[in-house]
UniProtKB/TrEMBL annotation:
<dbReference type="GO" id="GO:0009982">
    <property type="term" value="F:pseudouridine synthase activity"/>
</dbReference>
<dbReference type="GO" id="GO:0003723">
    <property type="term" value="F:RNA binding"/>
</dbReference>
<dbReference type="InterPro" id="IPR006224">
    <property type="entry name" value="PsdUridine_synth_RluA-like_CS"/>
</dbReference>
<feature type="domain" description="Pseudouridine synthase RsuA/RluA-like">
    <location>
        <begin position="25"/>
        <end position="180"/>
    </location>
</feature>
<dbReference type="Pfam" id="PF00849">
    <property type="entry name" value="PseudoU_synth_2"/>
</dbReference>
<dbReference type="InterPro" id="IPR006145">
    <property type="entry name" value="PsdUridine_synth_RsuA/RluA"/>
</dbReference>
<dbReference type="GO" id="GO:0140098">
    <property type="term" value="F:catalytic activity, acting on RNA"/>
</dbReference>
<dbReference type="GO" id="GO:0000455">
    <property type="term" value="P:enzyme-directed rRNA pseudouridine synthesis"/>
</dbReference>
<dbReference type="InterPro" id="IPR050188">
    <property type="entry name" value="RluA_PseudoU_synthase"/>
</dbReference>
<dbReference type="InterPro" id="IPR020103">
    <property type="entry name" value="PsdUridine_synth_cat_dom_sf"/>
</dbReference>
<protein>
    <submittedName>
        <fullName>Pseudouridine synthase</fullName>
    </submittedName>
</protein>
<comment type="similarity">
    <text>Belongs to the pseudouridine synthase RluA family.</text>
</comment>
Length: 232
């Protein structure tokens, strides 16, 4: 098996984590784009959501992660018991996650389902790939919100589609690779074709934002319906 070599060094992230909600059991945050969820093995990748939060909440642990370039909602457990309860909700697919994204080009259909199994391939690291034989089931829903053209510096226009994405499963890079599979990669996605169209090379970030998170509070039993408006 090929040895995985991770030579990614995250540039400094000067944006702050924004707090959406907190109590004695959990924290809801808005993660900035360009911040790792968890510190990497390389000492230069120390800065992360977890690294910043444990300075304030010493016993906190991550329940789930967002990709480095993805912004938006994350729920953080303040102790191991809450972490286990929330992880159970995630594993049972009792948590609803909603994302907003800008896709390259104009989608033909107004809505649809992407059903394409995803697998890891050490030879392609850090890319994931679609594989009907070895891939794990992965399913995403999309709904078109807007089709428009963005004016670029050179005067040309870039066709874009604003979509609402709802993943049923939680595979690594699922939404990014599913949108590429659809033929319309997420704008700014360096791994899956979101910088290939002319004029997209200077896009400052991955245009993917976790905008809604719906789950049950593990102690009170109250439905938590968190929302965080997309910055793009």
């Amino acid at each position: 098996m090929s040895k995985i070599i991770d030579d990614f060094i995250a540039p400094p992230c000067h944006d702050e984590i924004k707090y959406i909600y907190q109590d004695e059991h959990l924290i809801l945050i808005n993660k900035p784009s360009g911040l790792l969820s968890l510190s990497g093995k390389n000492p230069q990748n120390l800065d992360s959501v977890h690294h910043r939060l444990i300075k304030i909440f010493p016993n906190c642990t991550l329940v789930h992660r967002l990709d480095f370039g993805t912004s938006g909602l994350m729920v953080i457990a303040r102790n191991k018991i809450i972490n286990a309860a929330l992880c159970q909700q995630f594993s049972q697919r009792a948590v609803t996650k909603v994302y907003h994204a800008l896709l390259c080009g104009h989608l033909h259909n107004d809505e649809g389902i992407i059903d394409a199994p995803i697998t890891k391939d050490p030879a392609l690291f850090p890319l994931m790939s679609i594989n009907a034989i070895t891939g794990k089931p992965a399913r995403s829903h999309y709904h078109v919100l807007e089709r428009f053209y963005q004016r670029l510096e050179d005067g040309s226009s870039l066709p874009l589609t604003r979509v609402r994405l709802t993943p049923e499963t939680g595979r690594t890079h699922q939404l990014r690779i599913h949108c590429q599979y659809l033929g319309h990669p997420i704008l700014g996605c360096d791994l899956y074709g979101g910088r290939l169209l002319s004029g997209t090379e200077k896009i400052p970030r991955l245009m993917l934002h976790a905008s809604e998170l719906h789950f049950i509070h593990p102690i009170s039993g109250t439905p938590i319906n968190a929302q965080c408006e997309s910055p793009f």
